[in-house]
Amino acid sequence: MTIINAILGDFFWRALLAGAGVALVAGPLGCFVVWRRLAYFGDTLAHSALLGIALSFLIRLPLNLGVVITCVSVALVLVALSRTRTLATDTLLGILAHSALAIGLVALSFMPNVRVDLTGLLFGDLLAVTRQDLLWIYSGAVFVLALLAVLWRGLLMSTIHEELARVEGIPVERLRLVLMLMFSLVIAVAMKMVGVLLITALLIIPAATARRLARTPEQMTLLAILFGLVAVGGGLSLSWHLDTPAGPSVVVTAFAVFLLVYASARK
């Protein structure tokens, strides 16, 4: 127990545990982002997180809960608007992403009594992770991984062939909403680690790296988790030795691993 308390009392080890928890859940979900080509969708949800932070301060909600509620609301609005076919989906995503980010920043500027570290929110502050943050991260990770385990077949079928999944009686629309909920949770838990602007990168890059080497969906999921863990460990080491920002360093490491894998796979 003394060893555990010593580890949790050291900010570097807390950051490492937090990053590992996020990597465990970002890997599998990142695979669905890559398979379903949802990069812009994830980006829109991530940008709306700042609006969630502003609303949390306004109505005095816990930040993580406010972010989840806002992300889920934005996701539902996106689904509703995309069905109208008034605008192309990528145009709609671009409008909502930047509008949500801008509204969040403007809303925070009208709260002079609220002191917010915008740099930390936008780019992450992994080294400031607390024990409470760790509890939130691992609770969210366990919940999302349990949902993925239960819904894996349905999510995979609806991703591979949506029409065939409907014929087999798989509730495609319900699964899409559950997937959005899981994205929202991951964004909420990863926000403090890599920041609003870099969350999507942590979802996409390890999964894209794994896709180069994997032969099955399950193998890609495991490799995405592994590459996420490597990115976290390497990024924190880089930050420690070179005094660079922790969140961006994790993403830079993930990108370096991506380049290394793709370069070696061509030979």
Automatic annotation (TrEMBL):
One of its GO terms (cellular component) is ATP-binding cassette (ABC) transporter complex. Gene3D superfamilies: ABC transporter involved in vitamin B12 uptake, BtuC. Pfam families: ABC-3 (PF00950). Keywords: Cell inner membrane, Cell membrane, Ion transport, Membrane, Transmembrane, Transmembrane helix, Transport, Zinc, Zinc transport. GO terms for biological process: response to zinc ion; transmembrane transport; zinc ion transport. It is a multi-pass membrane protein. It is found in: Cell inner membrane; Cell membrane. The chain crosses the membrane at residues 12-35, 47-80, 92-114, 135-155, 175-208, 220-240, 246-265. It comes from the Bacteria. The keyword Transcription regulation does not apply. Involved in the high-affinity zinc uptake transport system. PANTHER family: ABC-TRANSPORTER METAL-BINDING PROTEIN (PTHR30477), HIGH-AFFINITY ZINC UPTAKE SYSTEM MEMBRANE PROTEIN ZNUB (PTHR30477:SF23). Belongs to the ABC-3 integral membrane protein family. NCBIfam families: PRK09543.1 (NF007089). This is High-affinity zinc uptake system membrane protein ZnuB. It comes from Marinobacter fuscus.
